Amino acid sequence: MVADRKTSLKPKRVLLINAVKWSDAYSKDNPSCDVGNWFIRWFKQLPGVSQAVVDAEDDFMDVVHNETDGIIISGSPRDAWNDDPVNEKLCSLIQECGDRKIPVLGVCYGHQVLGRALGGQVGRHPQGLELGNTPVELTATGLNFPLFAGFPKRFDVLNSHADAVLTLPPQCELLATGSFTQVQAFHHNGLLMGVQFHPETDPDTLRFIWSGRRETWRTKVNFDLDQRLASLQPAPHAAKVLENFVNHFIP
What residue spans define the domains of the chain? Predict the structure, then answer.
């Protein structure tokens, strides 16, 4: 495992690659559509941290090469396993970040793209949609991995996904697992890491995300979708993943 990178005095430049695609069911002027704010609010109090946001469909490689110390790839309604040009571009980015030693954190869709880029199997979850508060458990490796510094062995997260990393990529280590989705977090070489759950999300944000999807999904699930969303609870431990990513992996 790679040792923690020491805190330095120079600014830490985080690049968020926003892969969210809003349908016409959402007003783009709604402040809740600001994906950058979902993330920056959790580490904006950390000294010397700045966040830039680029769209996954944009040409962002100049920013990666010249203005970035670490990268976060957001969640998305996209499917990481299909032949989407954005998926191919992000897979190439991940390979380059591995070569250039740029730390990457993939979240939900970003986690799945990371799994694909590294050679794992990614696809529809065989049990369908995982939504809501979910208990996960750190592996022995996860308990000693800096992304989960200060975490208990078991903790609660917010999940919202119908796809998953179905097999762990070669030369990767499992960090966290759950009873519904086995691969909840993993890493490659202490540099490229993914979490299936949403550390950036709170109950209100997740309910907003689902506000434009409920009608479509009610008949696709075997549980009460509205009750599940109404009963969402905060998962404060999970949010510390973002702080740990900045503190322990970005030089």
Answer: 12-249
Query: Against a cut of 0.85, is the pTM above it?
Result: yes
Residue 2 predicted with pLDDT over 80: no
Closest CA to 201 of 72, 83, 35, 73: 35
Query: Of 144, 161, 163, nearest to 153 (Cα)?
Result: 144
Give the model's pLDDT for residue 230. 98
Q: pLDDT tier at 9 (50, 70, 90 boundaries)? A: low
With contact defined as beta carbons under 8 Å apart, do 186 and 167 qualify?
no
> Quick one: which of 234, 212, 211 has its CA closest to 132?
234
SS3 content of the chain, % helix, strand, coil (to 5): 35, 25, 40
| φ, ψ (nearest 5 deg) of residue 192 | -105, 120
Say whether 140 sits in a helix, a strand or coil.
helix
**pLDDT tens, position by position, 225-236:** 999 999 999 999
Q: How far is CA 155 from CA 135, 229, 239, in A?
A: 6, 19, 11
Is the CB of residue 72 less than 8 Å from the CB of residue 39?
yes
Give CA–CA dist 51/149, Å, rounded: 22
205 φ/ψ angles, rounded to the nearest 5 degrees:
-65, -45
What CATH number labels 12-249? Answer: 3.40.50.880
37-49 confidence digits (pLDDT tens): 999 999 888 889 9
Contact 188, 147 (CB under 8 A): no
Q: How far apart are CA 88 and CA 77, in angstroms?
A: 16
- The catalytic residues are 108, 198, 200
Q: Show the tokens assigned to 77.
A: 């309604």
**What is residue 12's predicted lDDT score, i.e. its pLDDT?**
94
